[in-house]
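Study this pair:
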Amino acid sequence: MNTLHSSVQQPVLPGRCLHEIFEARVCEAPGRIAISTLDEQISYSDLDLRANQLAHRLQTLGVGEDVLVGLCIDRSIDMLVGLLAILKAGGAYVPIDPSYPSKRIHLLLDDSAVAVVVTVSRVAECLSNCNAILVCIDNDSSLLSKQPVTAPSAKSNDRSLAYAIYTSGSTGTPKGVLVEHSNVVRLFEQTHHWFGFNDQDVWTMFHSIGFDFSVWEIWGALLYGGHLVIVPFDVTRSPKKFYNLLKSKGVTILNQTPSAFRHLVEADIASKESTDLALRLVIFGGEALELKLLEPWIARHGDQRPELVNMYGITETTVHVTYRRITRQDLESSGLSPIGIPIPDLQVYLLDESDHLVPDGTPGNLYVAGPGLARGYLNRPELTAERFLRNPYSSVEGARLYCSGDRAVRMPNGDLVYQGRSDEQIKVRGFRIEPREIELCLCRHPQITSAIVIPHDYGDGDVRLIAYVVPSLEPDVAAPLSKDLSSSELTQHAAAELPVHMRPSAYVILSALPMTAHGKIARSALPLPVADKHVFRGESAASKTSIEQVVVKIWEDVLGLKNIGTDDDFFALGGTSLALIRIFKRVNEHFGLSLDVSVLIEGATSGRLARCVDDELRNGQLLETS
């Protein structure tokens, strides 16, 4: 392993909490940059001071060991101040994305029963009618400044809760996964010999705090005295901007879902500049890795620096379970998704349907054991008992097995290869989604009697959800939609309850769901949305200029729709961030431009994009004639 020298060789002090290890790094190098954004930064000592003052305030409100505290802040230094303060007060944070629909935010608040929510004024409106006490970091700054700057005393220990992250639930409601400090600390202890993380490393916080990949990103930096760069949301959607950020910040550790990395590879190739990135590690997770997507990257950068690592993991087993170094030689094994060997303190068992161990080379259901297993699910004792089982392969009293729902095969060399799910759960851009939760949401619409949701890959990792619904009254067979029900109405219904990554991109209304002879839904018989039957706007919104016509045609091809108007909102049409990146790639190739997705910050419509293309072409002509 090619690592940088550092005064910090080990990330942990035995039996310590996450924030206590962070405090040790503060003592070692108080002036070192801890966190930065595009326009501000904070040192370890200042971050510690601010978190201490907020922690004292939280303790006066009753926050202590195992007390859940809501954390509803957008991507910012304040988010990390709030997170650290909750832990320092002895509590555990419950991440709540302020962009979630109001119904979902209140569902999380009610289920977690948090009495206190840490927030900031710019997003506090989403917490209106919240029964919890709101601690607004910026509005309460004068009160917080009077609090002690020293760390508060707390009764928490390494077996106390650190966070409760909500994942999609098959019962129709999300479920909170309870993770302890020790679960996270041992993750870094057990992987240190592979990665050699140190105080010279620069990490990005690319992922949402509600996605457990963020746990790896945050503590991979702060447990070692490293530098964490918070990536703005708009930059996460712009491969070009993100690529430039990697260069300007000197990022050394990059964590990506394969679908996001696919477009970063394209931005790297399009840069046509030096490939002198500071990256020493690229770590994949959250989705199955398709090895062929790495071919252009390895051809350009090789496989030594940065090293490429694929990791498989689950929220319930604390981020990561396995490790697999990816080399050029692996590219010959197309079609496989190698996830490697278990982290040293974890065990992976592959069982058949009768719960017997399967031999090497035979696919089996994947079960995980060891100290990475979470405490269980919040307020779900039956589900906890169902998924966290007694471990019959261990002599340790109380040892447990987690039933992952995934399938894998162990090769003769000991490597595990991912084989997909054993149930209907799916992954979209790294998020675990239980289709049943979406289906039950749709069935709460008064005109829907049944629904099924499936994923469809439109290419380049652009996975979208398609909903098939049966209305209470049979739709007009001559029209794609019932006269009493429209896709826009269903879109609005879903948007009121579901976060963006769980909303269907298209709706197909059927008189009945196709069934097999055994009474099960015939998924193979479900039709894809028929593009030429989708009508969104009238002739008044049709494209007029030649540029508009080209842009609209590209939108229709990528989205699989027809008759798109120039004022139709991209995301309302079911578009995804990956689909938008594909559209810009084709538009730039057609017109010879290098437009970035950020030009649509004022509105994601084809008409807006066409005007941007026209402006760019005119500017180019003016430069040529001057």
Remarks:
- The radius of gyration is 25 Å.
- Residues 1-8, 474-483, 531-540 have pLDDT under 50 and may be disordered.
- Residues 539-625 form a domain with the Non-ribosomal Peptide Synthetase Peptidyl Carrier Protein; Chain A fold (CATH 1.10.1200.10).
- The longest strand covers residues 400-410.
